[in-house]
Amino acid sequence: MKRFLAGLLILALLLTGCGIAAKQSNAINSSKSNESDIMWKWSFKNNHKTLENLQIFKSTDKGNSWTEINLPINTLPKDAYSDVYVENVVPYFLDSDNGWISWINNSDTILYMIKTTDGGKTWSKLSYKLPQLSQSISKIQFVTQNTGWLLAVSDGAAEQQIKYLFETNDGGKTWKKINVTSSDSYSGLPIVGTSTDMIFYGVDNGWVGLSNPVSADVILYRTVDGGNTWSKVSVPIPQGYEKYCILSASVPVFKDDKNGTLNVDFYRTNNGKAENHTVTYVTNDGGNTWSANNEKSIMK
User: What is the pLDDT of residues 272-284, one digit of tens each?
Assistant: First the structure.
């Protein structure tokens, strides 16, 4: 069924003329803790995002040297993390001690996590039953040791994707569904758009960005009440980009309460050639309004 839905999505993208394919990256991901000398990085062997291929490293000297962290894979039943049932494995590290490695098993729609509170020396196992169409993790983030959010999504098809937002206040032991895709754009996350990204600044202020395979409309949503309600933020389409699509989802990066940037990748095919233009937007009022600052064009 998942392959059938994926086929529908590819066909729909080709019909739009955008021909968007998901971005792939072989880069090592990294996270810097609040302590300036503690750093984490991780990668997947052969870019296979499975638990068996995950490599976690920790540095205590600002990245000058790294130590690989042993994961308790042998204590988990093979069916819990088999790549037959798991689409992606997502690590997240809050600080030098607290980290979570999460995945969804599609055979039973269970969220599995291994969690450390001592910098990777020991790990505990957590699991939680999710709704049926929560097929993969789009993003997970914690802002404190206990408070975090999980954005789980269905497989995208025909430019649509169901999105579930869950909140935990006990470090991932239990999760509460606080939002789900809704036709009411003033309260729920939209069904249109895929490849979702998410970021929270504190316990209330959060952002979700979506790719848009059918138009140049920038799909950016914001919450100011911890994810309970969402509203779409207006981001203008630069002149001349009306026939483009949005290649990648993005979320704002703020350097303080007022000033931030937002990068949006516009994409189209023109006379058989792919055009990819990255436009940087800026805000000076905390994200209420955005204006295009510059662009970087990449011809392929």
Answer: 899 999 999 999 9
Q: What is the pLDDT of residue 192?
A: 81
The alpha carbon of residue 82 and the mean position of all alpha carbons in its chain are separated, in whole angstroms, by 22
Torsion of CA 236, 238, 244, 249, to 10 degrees: -50
Q: What is the pTM of this model?
A: 0.84
Say if residues 130 and 152 touch (Cβ distance below 8 Å).
yes
Q: How confident is the model at residue 162 (pLDDT cuts 50, 70, 90)?
A: confident
User: pLDDT tens digit string along 283-296?
Assistant: 999 999 999 986 55
Q: Which residue has the tokens 């955005």?
A: 290
Q: Are 139 and 164 in contact (CB under 8 A)?
A: no
Radius of gyration of the chain (CA): 19
- Cβ proximity of 114 and 92 under 8 Å: no
172: Cβ–Cβ under 8 A, 6 or more apart, which residues? Answer: 100, 102, 113, 115, 126, 128, 148
Strands 29-32 and 39-44: antiparallel
Residue 180 pLDDT greater than 90, yes or no: no
